[in-house]
Amino acid sequence: MAISRGHRFEISFDEAFPQGLVLVGVVAPDSEFQSREDKAAGRPTRQRVDEITGKRQWKATVTDPSEEKAKRASFEVTFLADVQPVPSTSEVLPGMRPIELEGLTAEPKVAGQGEYKYQSYAFRATGFKAAAAGGGSKSARAGAAGTGDATAKAA
To answer: Closest Cα to residue 33, out of 51, 21, 45?
Structure first.
Protein backbone atom coordinates (compact mmCIF):
# COMPACT_ATOMS: atom_id res chain seq x y z
CA MET A 1 0.00 0.00 0.00
CA ALA A 2 1.52 3.29 -1.09
CA ILE A 3 1.25 6.58 0.75
CA SER A 4 -0.18 9.21 -1.55
CA ARG A 5 1.72 12.40 -2.28
CA GLY A 6 0.74 15.22 0.03
CA HIS A 7 -0.23 12.95 2.93
CA ARG A 8 -0.16 14.75 6.27
CA PHE A 9 1.11 12.81 9.26
CA GLU A 10 -0.22 13.72 12.71
CA ILE A 11 2.63 14.35 15.15
CA SER A 12 2.78 15.48 18.75
CA PHE A 13 4.29 18.89 19.39
CA ASP A 14 6.86 17.55 21.88
CA GLU A 15 8.03 14.91 19.40
CA ALA A 16 8.47 17.38 16.54
CA PHE A 17 9.97 20.22 18.60
CA PRO A 18 11.61 18.91 21.79
CA GLN A 19 12.78 22.40 22.86
CA GLY A 20 9.59 24.17 21.80
CA LEU A 21 9.15 26.93 19.22
CA VAL A 22 9.44 30.69 19.24
CA LEU A 23 6.91 32.74 17.26
CA VAL A 24 8.63 35.62 15.46
CA GLY A 25 6.25 38.41 14.49
CA VAL A 26 2.53 37.88 14.03
CA VAL A 27 0.11 35.42 12.44
CA ALA A 28 -1.06 36.84 9.09
CA PRO A 29 -3.45 35.71 6.32
CA ASP A 30 -1.89 33.54 3.61
CA SER A 31 -2.94 35.43 0.48
CA GLU A 32 -3.13 34.11 -3.07
CA PHE A 33 -0.81 35.54 -5.71
CA GLN A 34 -2.11 38.75 -7.22
CA SER A 35 -0.89 39.82 -10.67
CA ARG A 36 -0.06 43.41 -11.62
CA GLU A 37 -3.24 43.54 -13.69
CA ASP A 38 -5.32 42.48 -10.66
CA LYS A 39 -3.63 45.11 -8.50
CA ALA A 40 -4.11 47.79 -11.16
CA ALA A 41 -7.79 46.87 -11.48
CA GLY A 42 -8.18 47.27 -7.71
CA ARG A 43 -9.23 43.67 -7.14
CA PRO A 44 -9.02 42.61 -3.48
CA THR A 45 -6.52 39.96 -2.42
CA ARG A 46 -8.03 36.58 -1.60
CA GLN A 47 -6.97 34.45 1.33
CA ARG A 48 -5.96 30.87 0.51
CA VAL A 49 -8.22 28.02 1.57
CA ASP A 50 -6.89 24.55 2.36
CA GLU A 51 -8.15 22.09 -0.26
CA ILE A 52 -8.42 19.20 2.26
CA THR A 53 -10.08 20.85 5.27
CA GLY A 54 -11.77 23.84 3.59
CA LYS A 55 -10.40 26.12 6.35
CA ARG A 56 -8.66 29.45 5.79
CA GLN A 57 -4.86 29.46 5.80
CA TRP A 58 -2.78 31.69 8.06
CA LYS A 59 1.05 31.92 8.08
CA ALA A 60 3.49 32.57 10.89
CA THR A 61 7.28 32.51 11.06
CA VAL A 62 8.71 30.39 13.86
CA THR A 63 12.20 29.48 15.07
CA ASP A 64 13.19 26.04 16.35
CA PRO A 65 15.95 26.34 19.00
CA SER A 66 16.81 22.64 18.65
CA GLU A 67 17.80 22.99 14.96
CA GLU A 68 21.57 22.92 14.56
CA LYS A 69 21.73 24.56 11.10
CA ALA A 70 20.99 28.29 11.24
CA LYS A 71 19.44 28.43 7.75
CA ARG A 72 16.90 25.76 8.70
CA ALA A 73 16.07 27.06 12.18
CA SER A 74 13.41 29.55 11.01
CA PHE A 75 10.50 28.49 8.82
CA GLU A 76 6.80 29.12 8.26
CA VAL A 77 3.96 27.20 9.88
CA THR A 78 0.56 27.20 8.18
CA PHE A 79 -2.47 27.46 10.44
CA LEU A 80 -5.79 26.04 9.25
CA ALA A 81 -8.62 27.88 11.00
CA ASP A 82 -11.77 29.83 10.22
CA VAL A 83 -10.57 32.76 12.36
CA GLN A 84 -7.06 34.11 12.93
CA PRO A 85 -5.24 32.10 15.65
CA VAL A 86 -3.97 34.23 18.53
CA PRO A 87 -1.04 33.07 20.71
CA SER A 88 -1.83 32.86 24.41
CA THR A 89 1.71 33.46 25.69
CA SER A 90 3.32 36.81 26.39
CA GLU A 91 6.35 38.22 24.58
CA VAL A 92 9.76 37.45 26.05
CA LEU A 93 11.44 39.93 23.69
CA PRO A 94 9.72 42.42 21.39
CA GLY A 95 8.00 40.38 18.66
CA MET A 96 9.09 36.99 20.08
CA ARG A 97 7.07 34.58 22.20
CA PRO A 98 7.39 30.88 23.11
CA ILE A 99 4.50 28.83 21.72
CA GLU A 100 3.04 25.34 21.57
CA LEU A 101 0.92 24.21 18.64
CA GLU A 102 -2.16 22.00 18.63
CA GLY A 103 -3.45 19.85 15.81
CA LEU A 104 0.08 19.58 14.37
CA THR A 105 0.69 17.70 11.11
CA ALA A 106 3.84 17.23 9.05
CA GLU A 107 3.96 16.73 5.28
CA PRO A 108 7.28 15.45 3.88
CA LYS A 109 8.81 17.50 1.07
CA VAL A 110 12.12 18.05 -0.70
CA ALA A 111 13.87 21.36 0.02
CA GLY A 112 17.06 22.95 -1.26
CA GLN A 113 18.40 23.45 -4.77
CA GLY A 114 20.52 21.51 -7.23
CA GLU A 115 22.75 18.97 -5.56
CA TYR A 116 22.03 20.45 -2.11
CA LYS A 117 18.56 18.97 -1.62
CA TYR A 118 17.41 17.58 1.71
CA GLN A 119 14.36 16.07 3.39
CA SER A 120 12.13 18.69 5.00
CA TYR A 121 8.55 19.06 6.24
CA ALA A 122 5.63 21.43 5.75
CA PHE A 123 4.07 21.91 9.18
CA ARG A 124 0.39 22.75 9.67
CA ALA A 125 -1.48 23.37 12.91
CA THR A 126 -5.02 24.21 13.96
CA GLY A 127 -4.05 26.71 16.65
CA PHE A 128 -2.08 27.45 19.80
CA LYS A 129 -2.22 25.51 23.06
CA ALA A 130 -3.07 27.40 26.22
CA ALA A 131 -0.15 29.14 27.91
CA ALA A 132 1.83 27.02 30.33
CA ALA A 133 4.09 28.15 33.14
CA GLY A 134 7.57 28.85 31.83
CA GLY A 135 6.65 28.54 28.14
CA GLY A 136 8.14 26.09 25.68
CA SER A 137 7.32 22.41 25.36
CA LYS A 138 6.77 20.02 28.24
CA SER A 139 10.02 18.21 27.54
CA ALA A 140 11.95 21.51 27.49
CA ARG A 141 10.37 22.56 30.80
CA ALA A 142 11.35 19.18 32.26
CA GLY A 143 14.94 19.83 31.17
CA ALA A 144 15.05 17.00 28.65
CA ALA A 145 17.73 17.21 25.98
CA GLY A 146 17.04 16.93 22.25
CA THR A 147 16.55 13.51 20.70
CA GLY A 148 19.83 13.69 18.82
CA ASP A 149 18.81 13.27 15.19
CA ALA A 150 16.12 15.93 14.86
CA THR A 151 14.15 16.16 11.63
CA ALA A 152 15.08 18.90 9.17
CA LYS A 153 12.76 21.87 9.09
CA ALA A 154 11.81 23.92 6.03
CA ALA A 155 14.25 26.72 5.30
So the answer is: 45
Show pLDDT as tens, one digit a residue, over the chain (155 residues).
Answer: 678 888 999 999 999 999 999 999 999 999 999 899 988 998 899 999 999 999 999 999 999 999 998 988 999 999 999 999 999 999 999 999 999 999 999 999 999 899 999 899 999 999 999 765 444 445 444 433 333 333 344 43
Spatial CA neighbour of 125 closest among 13, 29, 19, 48: 13
Q: Are 45 and 125 in contact (CB under 8 A)?
A: no
How far CA 28 is from CA of 6, 14, 24, 57, in Å, comes to 24, 24, 12, 9
What is this structure's pTM? 0.79
Assess contact for 19 and 60: CB atoms under 8 A.
no
